[in-house]
Design goal:
- This protein has 312 residues and is an alpha+beta fold.
- The protein has three domains: 64 residues; 111 residues, Cupredoxins -  blue copper proteins (Immunoglobulin-like); 102 residues, Orthogonal Bundle (Cytochrome Bc1 Complex, Chain D, domain 2), CATH 1.10.760.10.
- The protein has seven helices and twelve strands.
- A five-stranded mixed beta sheet has the order 3-2-1-5-8, with no helix packed on it. A five-stranded mixed beta sheet has the order 4-10-9-6-7, covered by helices on one side. The chain has a two-stranded antiparallel sheet with strand order 11-12.
- Bound molecules: dinuclear copper ion.
- The site of dinuclear copper ion has 9 residues, from loops.
Length: 312
Amino acid sequence: MPPESSTIAGEVDALFYFIMYAGLILLAVVTLLAAFFVLKYRRTKREQTSGIAYNTPLEIIWTVIPTILIIIVFVWGFKSYLKMRVAPKDAIEIKVTAQKWFWSFDYSEGVTTVNELVVPQDKPVKLVMSSRDVIHSFFVPDFRVKMDVLPNRYTVTWFEATRRGNFNIFCAEYCGRGHSEMLGVVKVVSPQEYTGWLEEGAALGEGLTLEELGARLYIAKACHTCHKIDGAASTGPTLKNLFAHAVPLEDGTQAIADENYLRESMLNPMSKIVAGFQPVMPTYQGILKDRELDALIAYIKSLQIEKDATDE
Ligand code: CUA
């Protein structure tokens, strides 16, 4: 198992190992005894069966020992379960939104990130989670934290990271074609770095041109996972040389990739499907602010090849 990196991880592992070793010991005892008795009391021609059908001490032993084991596991498990379910009062609260096929994280300071959850070390973090489409599951193996994320309903989990570094987020509920690519990372930083990061994030875009901001958002909002800028088609069409060009659509018509087309494609991706691509893009409604939409459009405009610019 990956190294224990949250306050709860040790408890989860201890219970897991207890159940595993208790199970292995019981398996060994039962198997050895069964083999021993099969050999020792095998029926030979002359012997009759002993006729013994009941033994009170034995019945008591194999009823009481498993009952004690089950009570230990239940009490132990229930205590840890309560601890995992009830977030400390002073926890930092972050809103998690799952959708096909990425995670977005909303901080109360106004910062939104995609596939990157930045948290301070040694501080409890409470996640309030919901899905925009199907059931997903938020899973960080290093923290031993896993919780289903459902549409039309909030689920809550929390953790306190004990080590700095990057830890993988997986989606642990099959959610369609892109399930295996629904990856994120928890970045655990020092409390000072965290405060600095939040301030920087809240001020994102100040002092940047729209085009520069768009280039950052292209990575930060995970556009690059489906749309390449080198001219090659991926899950989605390339963004290179897209602006102001005609785009063939699934229904046989054409659209011109102007500002309104790009904006519509980000907010309502199902309205115009480009021929040859699957209708899998999630909506960015509520994730991109107006200025961010403008910035991405400016960035896409900048992705024209030189020759093209001189042609026009
Ligand atoms: Cu989301 Cu699997």
